[in-house]
Amino acid sequence: MVRASKIAQFLNKELKGPDIEIVKPCSVKDLQPKCITFAKNFSDDILECLVRNEECLALVTTEYEGKINCAHIVSDNPRLDFARTIAHFFQPAIKAGIAKTAILGDNVKIGEGVTIGEYCVIGNNVSIGNGTVIRNHVVIYDGTVIGNDCLIRSSTIIGEEGFGFERDKDQVPIRLPHLGRVVIGNNVEIGALSTVARGTLDDTWIGDNVKIDDHVHIAHNVHVGKNTIITACSEVSGSTSIGANSWLAPNCSIMNGISLGENVFVGLGAVVTKPVESGRVVVGNPARVLR
């Protein structure tokens, strides 16, 4: 339970209306007494909900000012401030520790406040930074480096060999050994049932604040710039470079060796076969520049 005024103080914003106690978050469509909600856009339906339910705290845009009587905080980005508030005041605390069923290899370096879930397998010479959470059934192979405050969701595999072959004179595929590592920065999230392959000779590299959704494949030698978001079922082929602050929509595919600049948006199901300059939006199969 927290006072609305304390939430306003945390957000460094002004509370308007009564200083009520808040016990939980809820959606604007299911408003309940003593809850906090948000409205990132103005609509008459949301306005009606807020007018009808005065015992809540709403994070709203300026369009709602003077039209509601419930406790409210005006924000340029209500959804962002809602996320920050929930994470700070209402997210359940995680008890750090290593599950008894987890298997750790030799020379594993584990920072403070790390959580390792049930049936995880951590290889030799792995480094895990402070505050990182590794959920259940995760496999992390030898030499992987994971930064501080990361989240690795269940059943993900990090650091296995990538898919690389060269045919001999009889057209038999001969595996190219993968001797690199996976290096993951700070505050990175990797979703469930995803794979991040180790590099061949150089490392596969995931920058700070990258967010990777469920069912994503990151191949060998990929470089992902900071703050990039890669959504569900995306496939990033080997030796691809993705610039900072980019967004890869669900089910897109990036051809091996392709470079994407910074602030690139790859559309739903797009197949990228050519380099993309910074600031471009690409869609389609094959992907073309929309704007």
Question: What are its keywords?
Answer:
globular; Udp-n-acetylmuramoylalanyl-d-glutamate--2,6- Diaminopimelate Ligase, Chain: A, domain 1; 291 residues; 3 helices; eleven-stranded mixed sheet
Alpha-carbon Rg, integer: 23 Å
| CATH fold-level assignment of one domain | Udp-n-acetylmuramoylalanyl-d-glutamate--2,6- Diaminopimelate Ligase, Chain: A, domain 1
Give the amount of beta strand, in percent.
25-35%
Main sheet: strand order = 8-11-14-17-22-25-28-31-34-36-37
Helix fraction, binned, reads 10-25%
Q: What is the average of the pLDDT values?
A: 95
Distance between the termini: 47 Å
Task: Please state the overall shape, judged from the principal axes of the Cα atoms.
Answer: globular
> Structural class of the helices, strands and pairings?
mainly beta
**Contiguous uncertain segments of 5+ residues:** none
Number of helices: 3
CATH class of one domain: Alpha Beta
Biggest β-sheet strands, sense, barrel: 11 strands, mixed
How many beta-strand elements?
A: 37
CATH architecture of one domain: 3-Layer(aba) Sandwich
- Corresponding CATH superfamily of one domain: MurE/MurF, N-terminal domain
